[in-house]
Amino acid sequence: MDETGKRKALGEFIRTQRTQLSAAELRLGGSTRRRTPGLRREEVAQLCDISVTWYTWIEQGRTVSVSAAALARIAEALHLSRAKRAYLFELSGKKDPQAQDLQAADIPDEILAVAGNIKTPAYLLDRHWNAVAWNRAAKTLFVGWLDQKESRKNLLEYTYCAPQASQLISDWEQRASRLAAEFRADCGMYLDEPEIAQLVARLSNASNAFQRAWNLHDVVEKEGGERRFNHPTLGSLAYRQVNLRVANRPELKLVMLLPL
């Protein structure tokens, strides 16, 4: 979808959400008997503290200057659900200013339990690529990472900084370089967030390999494919990696390794 198409889709989405709300739901004054369903543009503009003209342009897909703050006010005024709010910001290409880092405690138990119910190595990554859940098979495979109680659970930090990683991952140099490019693609919109900025700074100081890979500004999509390991006790292992997004938590990624 090009920029014109995105602006049009954004405007149509906002308009349809406006027409599905009623003044009674929001406890707005005035008569509840209306010729057309939903709220008036004037009412939403007032709730968002923006001009009616500008709001009208947004619905008509005529402006590209919608700030993230204005979109957040529109989302709140329209009482958008989590999924709808995420869709709103995805269409706009803006970062939600209220996006919060997910901690394990914020993730429903049924999602955390998914990895544990898979027989092959599987782990769940958050938006910053911290492992928030994993199963016994993954703990056995990833020596120096998921088997450590006190170590950081970030996949990039493990790959670039743990001495066990370069020994475990057969094609470490190639995989490590690709991971940096995948991370930039996955988190490009959030690179200014303090936690990500601090992670990049730590890795740049700790690993020359990461610094070189990061400075290439390469971007590739996170894909599956063949993964080979030289495990210290299990020997040579080969898997096919499959990555899945969690439907109601798109910032979470389930990674599964299926034996070849």
Walkthrough of the structure:
This protein is of the alpha+beta class and 260 residues long. It folds into two domains: 3-92, Orthogonal Bundle (434 Repressor (Amino-terminal Domain)); 104-259, Beta-Lactamase. It is 47% helix and 15% strand. The protein has 13 helices and five strands. The chain has helices spanning 3-19, 23-26, 41-48, 52-59, 68-77, 82-92, 109-116, 136-141, 155-161, 163-168, 172-187, 194-206, 208-215, and strands spanning 122-125, 131-134, 225-231, 235-246, 249-259. The chain has a five-stranded antiparallel beta sheet. Strand 1 and strand 2 form a beta hairpin. Helix 5 runs antiparallel to helix 6 (82-92). The chain is elongated. The chain starts with a helix and ends with a strand. The relative contact order is 0.10.
Provide the structure class: alpha+beta
Radius of gyration (CA) equals: 23 Å
The proportion of strand residues reads 5-15%
CATH topology of the largest domain: Beta-Lactamase
Span between termini: 37 Å
Keywords:
260 residues; alpha+beta; 434 Repressor (Amino-terminal Domain); Beta-Lactamase; 2 domains; 13 helices; 15% strand; elongated
